[in-house]
Specification:
about 375 residues, alpha/beta, Rossmann fold, Transcription Regulator spoIIAA, 3 domains, 14 strands
Length: about 375
């Protein structure tokens, strides 16, 4: 029996796309292998959000050179956000001649076609972003949770972020297709439905579809014993209507992930986040007022170009005010092709490392206070 092994880097969207790659392979009679070394097809589904993720890909792919030399019949494929960047895809092709297939996010739906090609090696690159990947079969691998894409792409162009370049502009799925997939998942026994998008709050704006609040209401009206979560939300687009749906519908988990990135208005402006600290805090206040038992998590980037100690202390102050239930803190990572790549006043690694560790210590302090009843 032929087997496969998929290594996934990055976000939940990548996890679900790996489920689609697995679905294609399962349809062709392949079964998952317990170990990468034992697989007939090895797939790396890559991430481009931070430099560290790309470095791990190059290291782990490079480690397969000996395995491929000893087993030339094995197929090695590299795909995802990293390979949607033309320069990175071409570098992989040149540096690792033992890779058989390289393709980006825009070509996900062509995976089976690539497997059937008889050419010795294949490098597929284009920018024809679409929703054809939503028609792929999938093999769910996340326990009782079913990922359901509601949209692809992003229009925000935060100056540090590569996503609009590797995922394209926002494209909303028809709500009928989403509801059909949710019903199928619920009927199959899944207890948690997680709606996915780079900015779920923008759902429908690109094509005149229903709003995200209306979509949540329709999903919650589906019969069955299940809960609903969603990610990720952009603060500038989170509406009172969405907050109301979360507050008033029992099927919605009382959890909102709301990335703030920085507590300094000057940094937020350079990031092109399109909201102020004051606006963000007003949203947090509305959420906590309407959903007293809510769990709020966030993302923080430290060391953005030009971030001063005063800027960083403002971020710490915001964290103390909000008292997040969870913080995902990252050091700023230069992404080729973004506006921030060319910004002056890049912050040294030592300073970024100190700041991210302080954020993590602050998170621990807040959790300890909450355990002691100090909310």
């Amino acid at each position: 029996m032929k087997t496969y092994f998929i290594t996934t880097y990055g976000c939940q969207l990548n996890v679900h796309e790996s489920e689609k790659l697995a679905g294609v392979l399962q349809k062709r009679g392949f079964l998952p292998a317990d170990k990468l070394e034992d697989a007939d097809i090895i797939v790396f589904n890559t991430c481009a959000i931070r430099e560290g993720a790309e470095d791990r890909v190059f290291g782990n792919v490079g480690a397969l050179k000996k395995l491929k030399k000893e087993h030339k019949e094995k197929i090695i494929a590299v795909c995802g956000c990293m390979t949607q960047q033309k320069a990175k895809a071409e570098k992989l092709y040149q540096v690792f001649p033992f890779i058989d297939i390289i393709f980006g996010t825009s070509n996900l739906h062509k995976f089976e076609e690539f497997l059937d090609k008889k050419t010795k090696r294949l490098l597929a690159y284009d920018e024809d972003f679409n929703l054809e990947g939503e028609n792929m079969p999938f093999y769910r691998t996340s326990g009782e949770n079913a990922w359901v894409n509601i949209m692809q792409g992003c229009n925000n162009f935060c100056t540090y972020c590569i996503v609009p370049y590797v995922r394209g502009r926002e494209r909303s799925r028809p709500h009928e297709d989403i509801l059909k997939e949710v019903k199928e998942a619920v009927n199959s026994g899944y207890k948690l439905i997680t709606l996915l998008g780079q900015n779920v709050n923008s759902y429908g704006k690109d094509c005149g579809e229903i709003s995200f609040a209306e979509l949540l209401t329709k999903v919650a009206s589906i019969d069955g014993d299940f809960k609903i979560a969603f990610m990720t939300s952009h603060p500038k687009d989170l509406t009172s209507e969405v907050i109301d749906v979360v507050a008033n519908n029992k099927k919605l988990l009382k959890e909102i992930h709301l990335p703030v990135q920085s507590g300094s208005n000057s940094v937020l402006e350079r990031m092109n986040r399109k909201y102020t600290v004051e606006k963000y805090l007003s949203i947090i206040e509305e959420i906590k007022t309407k959903i007293p038992d809510v769990r709020i998590t966030t993302d923080i980037i430290v060391g953005f170009p030009g971030e001063t100690e005063e800027d960083f202390e403002k971020t710490c102050s915001l964290i103390r005010k909000v008292k997040y239930d969870g913080i995902f803190a990252f050091m700023f990572s230069v992404r080729e092709g973004t506006v921030a790549e060319k910004m002056n006043d890049q912050v040294p690694f030592e300073i970024k490392n100190r700041r991210v560790n302080k954020i993590l210590e602050l998170e621990k302090e807040i959790k300890k206070d909450k355990l002691n009843g100090n909310n």
